Amino acid sequence: MTNNKFHLKTAGVLASSILAGTGMVSAQSISKYVDKFPGVVGRTLSDSKEARTQNPKAPVGSPNVLWILIDDVGFGASSAFGGLINTPNLDELANNGLRYTNFHTCAISAPTRASLLTGRNSSTAHMAGFGHESLSAGFPAWEGRIPSETGTIAEILRDRGYSTFAVGKYGLTPDADTTDVGPFDRWPTGKGFDHFFGFLGSATDQYKPDLVNDNEHVRPDGRHLNEQITDKAIAYITRQHRVAPDKPFFLYYSPGAVHAPHQVDKEWSDKYKGKFDKGWDWYREEVFARQKKLGIIPLNAKLPARDTRLKAWRDLSVEQQKLYARFFEVYAGFLEYTDYEIGRLIQYLRNSGLLENTAVFAIIGDNGASKEGTFNGVIDKGVLAFENDGEFLDYNLKNIDKIGTPSTITSANYPLAWAQATNTPFRNWKQDAYSEGGTRNPLIVYYPKVVTEKGGIRTQYGHVIDVLPTTLDLIGIQSPSEIRNIKQDSIHGTSLFYSLNDAKAPSRHTLQHYYIFGARSVYKAGWKAAAPHHPDYIDLYTSPKAQQIIPRDPNRFDTEKWELYNLNEDFNETNDLAAKYPEKLKELKTLFEAQAKRYGLAPYIDWADIYEKRLEFEKNRKK
């Protein structure tokens, strides 16, 4: 007996296939496009009304936007915030704009950059760690792949009529995607940037960078990367302005400087010869006094004690002092040279008549000063290449003239004590998400068309996720509910627009959590609970004997000691109140867990987990 239903169904499928093969489709299959069409589709042209697709156009008078993000700079490094390293161009922006002294990052590179570009907390952007295979994990928060639901500022502004450019460090592309065969959807050009020139990883040689131009790797020309990215940024803007002078641009200027390797021409480093011979203890005291004079820290503030793991400068040998001072001379020259290239970009905008309608956000550091230089500094061999600290120190002394030169390695970095010095007035350093020394970085906002005060200081609490909504408010546009037909997660940041012309406005960003490889904290309306976590990077990477993984307590996330601070009265965390206010500490610890759950941070992963994964990764790679 014939199954008529089967034959009717088959005939329908065949008919659909035939129609598709001839270019004909059913009305049902195209109705979703017709339903969204803003015109009228009639049976004939006379019954229809055209509605042509138009390229997006920015609101009339929209400002150009320049985001500057410098790498690995502590709060007390630049002269703009009281440091002893000359940054005249950042000084000029600050003196004609605003200094935000209570602004925060995520304490390490990739999470900060993902949060900045998306306006979301890093775990929601799936960048609680890195895009590197050895520093990521197979869980949503840790996979290192920004989802399409958390669109970037470049995607938002491109769809609102902006040209979008990025130069320098990106640091958010998964390692597996970084070859010239892609896929390219997580390269900068796949995340909303019309053009990109720089490198995709976390660090690169400044003279031999792993250089990318749009969607292909290119051969570097031997010049310092800072010079190359500045030239490219100027070329992008020049070309756009020539073709479409009324079209605004968004430029993300993110040098690899001053992340390791510290490499710069001696023209710059030699400017600081002898300037730091008094050492890191003197530096901290000098900068602390300057910061009070500038009004960027409270007059009653106290300088935290030197970290117990660090030696007093006076206790070092003459040879050690000479070596360590040279490391910092190179770093200082590197930062001043970076400021020079920023100034070259700003001067171009001024000469072109573009600066007066350009909103500039300059973030001086994507985290606190780097803790990754060991106790003796790194030139061209790391600590694990030697049997003991004495051998390592002797090697560095013999190779002192290599510091800062192209012959150094990608991890070339200053000794750890300089990290605390350049983080003045705070404790600790990069990666320490529990401490202001890891998370508080200077922010400069310059846009005279809106900001009426010159040289103003703002103390409102801010976080890197706030820059995106602030930018949108300056332009006068809303964050979209969809990007390329993909529904977007809500923005987590709080716009700082309310504070631009009101120094006394109360903070609107009152709750923020932090987490980097076990170190964690939560801030709520001036109170902060913080958990230093061990093992951390120093435990695993700054000892010559760190060949074996430190034993891990499976209960380490529950048994470790927390600290409590009232930042309203003790802004740089010198007085731990945990014993005095146990109920407040308990409240904030519970709040951290709620924030972690809300933003999908779990599972908690620390440096011991990462180190074990790294050993496994290296072992498999050698097979």
From TrEMBL:
GO MF term list: hydrolase activity; metal ion binding
CDD domains given in the database record: PAS_like
PROSITE patterns: SULFATASE_1
Coiled-coil residue windows: none
The record's account of how the chain is modified after translation: The conversion to 3-oxoalanine (also known as C-formylglycine, FGly), of a serine or cysteine residue in prokaryotes and of a cysteine residue in eukaryotes, is critical for catalytic activity.
InterPro entries found in the cross-reference section: Alkaline_phosphatase_core_sf, Sulfatase, Sulfatase_CS, Sulfatase_N
Domain Sulfatase N-terminal: 63-477
PTM-bearing positions, type 3-oxoalanine (Ser): 109
Keywords associated with the record: Calcium, Hydrolase, Metal-binding
Pfam family, one: Sulfatase
Family affiliation: Belongs to the sulfatase family.
PANTHER family in UniProt: ARYLSULFATASE FAMILY MEMBER, BLL2667 PROTEIN
Name under which the protein is recorded: Sulfatase
